[in-house]
């Protein structure tokens, strides 16, 4: 039977605890995670919560938690990282708006899953949406995607924090690199960067 680390929850052979550094942010980070994404051992939402312990991960199929969050969510102080017709580039958010943002919401899942989650939860469409106009390319190689502009949830969180707070997010990237270095899955699961 495979043994797991009690802290990072990865197998002991791939424990990344030694590579976790706390990232300090004034924002509340909420990740709405598609239930299928939660089953992936290499999902990066877990890494975000290890580096930013106050992160809340809400499973999208947990109706009670989603309802509770929707009732607590204050549209004026919350932004959703999601590209839609009304979204604005995160790089162009003015200082006044940045100062009003208290909650950063991300969706963890494929583009198709994210689209379905927003459709199923129309209250998300009432939030100010932000998209990335000039995000750096992804360095996350242990996932399947053919999209060049797709970022891992960790990379999206890090970039959003850089844009909104201009803080040091090296700890997030370090955790993702450690996961990739320790990953023992087949090489066919790695993308060419």
UniProtKB/TrEMBL annotation:
Organism of origin is: Alteromonas portus
Single Gene Ontology MF annotation = tRNA-uridine aminocarboxypropyltransferase activity
| Protein name in UniProt | tRNA-uridine aminocarboxypropyltransferase
Q: Which UniProt keywords apply?
A: S-adenosyl-L-methionine, Transferase, tRNA processing
EC numbers, comma separated: 2.5.1.25
Q: Which GO terms describe its biological process?
A: tRNA processing
* Annotated TM spans: none
- Enzyme class of the recorded protein, top EC level: transferase
Query: What family is reported?
Result: Belongs to the TDD superfamily. DTWD2 family.
Which InterPro entries does the annotation name? DTW (IPR005636), DTWD2/TAPT (IPR039262)
Record-annotated DTW domain positions: 1-188
């Amino acid at each position: 039977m495979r043994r797991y680390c009690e802290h990072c929850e990865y197998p002991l052979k791939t424990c990344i605890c030694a590579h976790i550094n706390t990232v300090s942010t004034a924002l509340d980070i909420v990740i709405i995670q598609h239930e299928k994404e939660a089953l992936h051992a290499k999902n990066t939402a877990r890494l975000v919560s290890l580096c930013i312990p106050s992160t809340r991960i809400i499973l999208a199929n947990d109706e009670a938690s989603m309802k509770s969050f929707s009732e607590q969510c204050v549209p004026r102080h919350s932004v959703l990282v999601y590209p839609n017709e009304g979204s604005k580039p995160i790089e162009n958010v003015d200082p006044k708006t940045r100062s009003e943002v208290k909650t950063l919401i991300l969706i963890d899942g494929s583009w198709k899953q994210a689209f379905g989650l927003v459709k199923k939860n129309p209250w998300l469409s009432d939030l100010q949406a932000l998209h990335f106009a000039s995000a750096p390319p992804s360095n996350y190689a242990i996932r399947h995607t053919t999209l060049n502009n797709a970022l891992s949830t960790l990379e999206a969180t890090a970039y959003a924090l850089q844009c909104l707070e201009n803080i040091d997010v090296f700890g997030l990237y370090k955790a993702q690199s450690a996961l990739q270095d320790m990953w023992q899955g087949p090489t066919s699961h790695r993308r060419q960067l």
